[in-house]
Design brief:
This is PNPLA domain-containing protein. By secondary structure, the chain is an alpha/beta fold. The protein has helices at about 20-30, 35, 50-55, 70-85, 90, 120-125, 195-205, 210-230; strands spanning about 10, 40-45, 95-100, 110, 140, 140-145, 160-165, 180-185, 190. The relative contact order is 0.19.
């Protein structure tokens, strides 16, 4: 693989498996920072939007309380204002693309222009009805839900480097053996194997935080080493 020009980066829906994507983002910064710094657009769906925001706004999310024993939406309402910089909307406008699903008709919506820090509409992209509560968040008077329902792996017309904790037709993902059938999730093609089924379960009901960080960090490093070798670095 040869990257001849800057590529946008897309982080898929991932749930609690977002720690894998955080590991990939950290490997980018450590070993190929030019990929992140020159990316014209960084997209994210669902929890992937948190990773995208962390990359664009140059922040680190503390994931200590990120577990299913709490109300996820309430935790996000607390942690986002705390960690997003005051000028997050300036850093994000035109570069961060947050995908959401409009509640009334299920239409895929992409927000990339923000007027204030509060407008960085990450809550809308992460709301799973029932799992996060019963009252959806709104953005400028319109109710939205998880962006992964309408576009699991968002892309832009230009070249896009895709990142997902689920193996499939994705640029950076865990390396699994081939399987006999594929699983299409909101436009993204994933491998229909046992490993992905386990990952999907862990995305909703994860293992302990310590084990999750260790395994996903190691998995991300192995994946990135293979990717950088393809780049000839």
């Amino acid at each position: 693989m040869i990257i001849k020009q800057p590529q946008s980066i897309s982080f898929s829906g991932s749930g609690f498996m977002a720690t894998y994507q955080l590991g990939v983002a950290q490997c980018f910064l450590n070993h190929a920072p030019w990929i992140v710094r020159t990316a014209p657009c960084v997209l994210g769906a669902s929890a992937g939007s948190l990773v995208a925001a962390a990359v664009v706004c140059e922040i680190t999310f503390a994931l200590g309380p990120f577990n299913p024993s709490i109300n996820v939406l309430h935790w996000l309402e607390y942690v986002l204002p705390k960690y997003l910089p005051s000028d997050a909307h300036r850093m994000a406008s035109g570069r961060l693309a947050v995908t959401m699903t409009r509640l009334t008709d299920g239409k895929h919506i992409v927000m990339s222009e923000f007027q204030s820090k509060e407008d960085v509409a990450l809550l809308c992209s992460c709301f799973v009805p029932g799992y996060c509560g019963t009252h959806p968040p709104s953005f400028k008077g319109v109710y939205y839900m998880d962006g992964g329902f309408s576009s699991f792996q968002p892309v832009v017309p230009s070249q896009t480097l895709t990142v997902s904790p689920f193996s499939g037709d994705i640029d950076i993902c865990p390396a699994d053996t081939t399987c006999t059938w594929d699983l299409v999730v909101s436009g993204a093609t994933l491998k229909g194997n046992v490993a992905n089924i386990v990952r999907m379960f862990n995305a909703i009901y994860p293992m302990t935080l310590e084990v999750r960080h260790l395994l996903h960090s190691l998995d991300a490093k192995v994946t990135m080493c293979r990717f950088l070798q393809l780049l000839g670095r």
